[in-house]
Amino acid sequence: MKNEFVKRATRLLLLIVFLSGGISAIFFAHTIHATDYTSSNFILRDPVIVPGSDTLTSTNFELITSFAQTSIGENTATSFIGRWGFLYFPTPTPTPTPTPTPSSGSAGGNGPPALASLTPGGSPIIPFLQRTGVIFEGYGYPRSEITVLKDGQIVAVVTAGSDGAFRADLTDLLTPGSYTFSIFGRDNKRVQSRFLIIPLVLDAGTNKHIKDILIPPTLYTDKTEVKEGDNLTASGQSAPNAEIEVVTIDPNDKETQYKTTSDADGSYKFIVDTKDFIFGRYTIKTKTYFKQLVSLFGYPRLF
Fold first, then answer.
1. Quick one: which of 187, 194, 139, 141 has its CA closest to 166?
2. Whole-angstrom Cα distance, residue 39 to residue 237?
């Protein structure tokens, strides 16, 4: 009987201890806080890794969003290093403030900074990934629509002035890399010009300036089949008050050049005398001379 009493008392005591410990764990558990991380110009309090956070800014930095890779690792490219993982802090190496040197044809401007890894109380350990861009300037048809494409996607549509001048400004709107830009215009009949293809490599922190672009003229003819003795009327639109070179190519690939001029609206018209033409398929094409600039030939026509 005594032994049985001792066993029961021992079990009761263990049960009380267990229950008191669980209650204590529930009501008196310690709260764990993340460590604050600071630099000379901002502080990050209670950091938690959550992908897709809001934009955070101060007078001298901009955090667009957080990264969701929580495991430790390192990703690199030619212009940045990403060191991932919570509490992953390599030995800090002071980095001086970068001063980009504009490339040839740069329009200046350093662009806003993007992201930099930080050490507690230290300096950034990688340089800011800076934005880049390009400005296109030139001449098209007066008051016409000029379209700029990047890798086949429209990035800007601008309207030329009465003098044909246009400017498409993509300053600080792109990231560093290689791109293929295309530019074309539409004349007053909505006929599309020949595409101008401009491949570019854009470096971080610089903005290139591409000037003296001259949109090729448009061309249409009043007939596609010319009878013996008939004339052919070629017309289109170009830069205003410009010299237009009209070229015909006969079936034997012999070229004949003619000259005409466009009016203040950029419109031109030229009548081709065909009385000396031989029988066969001909090609006609035009190009523009304007302000010491020479365009490419526009799209040709056959007759």
1. 139
2. 60
What's the CATH number where 282 sits? 2.60.40.10
Pair 155, 114 in one domain: no
């060191």: which residue's tokens? 83
CB 298 within 8 A of CB 219: yes
175: CATH = 2.60.40
* Average pLDDT of the residues in 75-83: 53
Average pLDDT value for residue range 69-85: 52
Domain edge (last residue) among 76, 110, 130: 130
pLDDT tens-digit readout, 183-214: 999 999 999 999 999 999 999 888 999 999 99
**Dihedral angle, C-alpha 159, 165, 168, 172, nearest 10 °:** -140
Question: pTM of the prediction?
Answer: 0.57
How far is the C-alpha of 178 from the C-alpha of 76, rounded, in Å? 18
Cα-Cα-Cα-Cα dihedral sign, residues 215, 216, 222, 223:
negative
Mean pLDDT to the nearest integer, 152-179: 93
